[in-house]
Structures are given as structure tokens and as C-alpha cells.
Amino acid sequence: MYKQLIRPILFKFDPEKIHHFTFSFLKTSQKLPFVKSIVKSRFEVSDPALEREVFGLKFKNPVGLAAGFDKDAKLYKELSSLGFGFIEIGTLTPKPQPGNPPKRLFRLKADQAIINRMGFNNGGVLEAVERLKKNTDVLIGGNIGKNKVTPNEEAVEDYKICFDALFDYVDYFVVNVSSPNTPNLRALQDKEPLTQLLQTLMDKNAEKPTQKPILLKIAPDLTDSQLLDIIDIVTETNIAGVIATNTTIGRDNLQSDADLVKETGGLSGKPLTKRSTEVIRFLAEKSNKAFPIIGVGGIHTAEDALEKLDAGADLVQLYTGFIYEGPQLIKDINQALLKRAR
């Protein structure tokens, strides 16, 4: 019903406005207990065979929502009711920031893709913490970044602030240095600054009575040499794992209107399917599967998800595929996993 009836209507309107409308609709409708019950019965697949234990956490199923959709932790409970096994919030920064000026979100329908240059728009980490204090049952990842005005040489402090603020309210952390929409952020993926950043957070983690998994989210545009550096950094710092991958700045072989294709920002969706899987496979093979990987990028079918898991991912996340395919995609993936397990 979503693809045939709902999506054509939603796609007639501005993507960012529809995003806010959808949030309001889901928040309001699920305040009614019978609606929430219907939604859960329609989309949730519950079976012990779907459970996964990864970096010390137990996931009820391996299909999560990627960061960027629920930046400010406003809708994690409602989104969990759609069948996700975990929700990643953020990217959050120490101080609130508006992000880049609109228009900053574009649908490339012919490519089943999205270009965004949102720029870490969020209400700040402390605002999100107040919402997360109400969480009792949703497994939450906290994706953290730096404010736009913070120079790279001071970026570590921003990540430390977010880490400390969120520590008691998330189950794992994701260090985002791979968004193309904050000036110079990707320079932090270079070996020396990235090692320093991750080691600093791991040192802070070690000071806590119990530790939380810290993961690194990487870009799909890294070369093989850079990916080998990532393996070295993960091994050296002993972080829990990697999320592969973020959006791409590449624009190869797109079919959409040229005016859309030339928009700056990160490209997500179907054009990223193959490359993100290649990165997952490279990391898994070259590291001899030394650390867990969360696979994300271009998952629009159950088969796409299975390919990433077969390539070496332990869990998967959706974003653009969720927008194009709707919540049925979550159910399809979990049902395919159950079918394979039997």
C-alpha cells in the first residue's frame, strides 16, 4: 500500500517538509494504543532466530535505522514499533545548529536515491538527552559529530562533550567523521587525527565503570589504501567496529535530471548499493573478520540486505530504502532471514 498509494502522494511535496509531516503523523497517531498495536502486528517480526549478539549487545533483530532520520531522538519509540531492531539517533553536536540553508534535500526518483546537504542540523546533545531519559526498551545508538564552527584541531573536544552527555542514555556510540556536509570534516578520517580522536574516546570509555561500544562510520569514497588504514586504526585503538558506509560524493552513472545530479551533498540510495557492499567485503576479508561491521547503503530489497550480510556485515541499517520502500522493507528482510534460518 505504501508504494502504490502513500509514496506517490508524499513524493509530490518538498522532501524536508514531508519529513516533518511524517514525524508529526507518526507521533500523533501512535499516541492511540490501538494504532500502535496495529502497527506492531503489521510490521514487527519476532523470533529468537532473528536475535543477534554483536559487540556485547543483544539485538532483537539485525535491521536498524541509520542515523540522520531521527536526528534529535524525537521518534525512536514510534520508529521501533515499525519493526526495527535498533535505532541510531543523530548526528548530534554539542551546541544546537541549524545546518545548511534550505533547499538541502533532493529526491532523485529515477535513481531511487537522495542527495542531502543537511549539515548536522540538530537541537544539540543536551536536548536529545532529555528525550532519551524516557527510553526503557529501545536499543539506541548515539551518532556524534562536531559543530560546524569548531575547527578540526579542536574537534576532539566536541566529540568528548557528546560522549559524556550521552553515555548513560545510549547503548553504543558512532563517531561520524565521514559526512560530506560539514566543511573539512572528512579530513578527520586521515590516519593520525582519526587515531587520536578514537583513542581519546576509548580512554574516556575506560574511565567509566562499564564501557560502551564505540564504532566508526566511514565514507564509501575511501581508497583501498585508506581502508587498510582504517583496519589498522580499528586494531590499534580497539574500538568495537565499523559502520560502512556513509553517503558518497560520487555521481557516476545517474539517470536523473542533470540539475538534480549537480546538487552538492551526499548521495544515498540505490547508486550506493554495490560500493557499500564492496567496502564491507574488503574490510571483512582484509581484517580476517577481526571486528563487527554494520552494513548500510542502498538497501532497497531483502536481497540487498542479505548480500551485505554475506559480504561480512553483522547487522544492517536502512535510510533511503526505508523512504522509498516503506516499513514493509523491514519485515521483508526479517522474513527472508527467518526463511534462510529454517
From TrEMBL:
Gene Ontology terms: cellular component: cytoplasm; plasma membrane
Gene Ontology molecular function, alphabetical: dihydroorotate dehydrogenase (quinone) activity
CDD domains the UniProt entry points to: DHOD_2_like
Name of the protein in its database record: Dihydroorotate dehydrogenase (quinone)
Catalytic activity of the protein: (S)-dihydroorotate + a quinone = orotate + a quinol
The species this protein was found in: Pustulibacterium marinum
Record: active site: S179
Function as written in the Swiss-Prot or TrEMBL entry: Catalyzes the conversion of dihydroorotate to orotate with quinone as electron acceptor.
Chief location category: membrane
Tree of life domain: Bacteria
UniProt enzyme class: oxidoreductase
Involved pathway(s): Pyrimidine metabolism; UMP biosynthesis via de novo pathway; orotate from (S)-dihydroorotate (quinone route): step 1/1
InterPro entries documented for this protein: Aldolase_TIM, DHO_dehydrogenase, Dihydroorotate_DH_1_2, Dihydroorotate_DH_2, Dihydroorotate_DH_cat, Dihydroorotate_DH_CS
Alphabetical UniProt keywords: Cell membrane, Flavoprotein, FMN, Membrane, Oxidoreductase, Pyrimidine biosynthesis
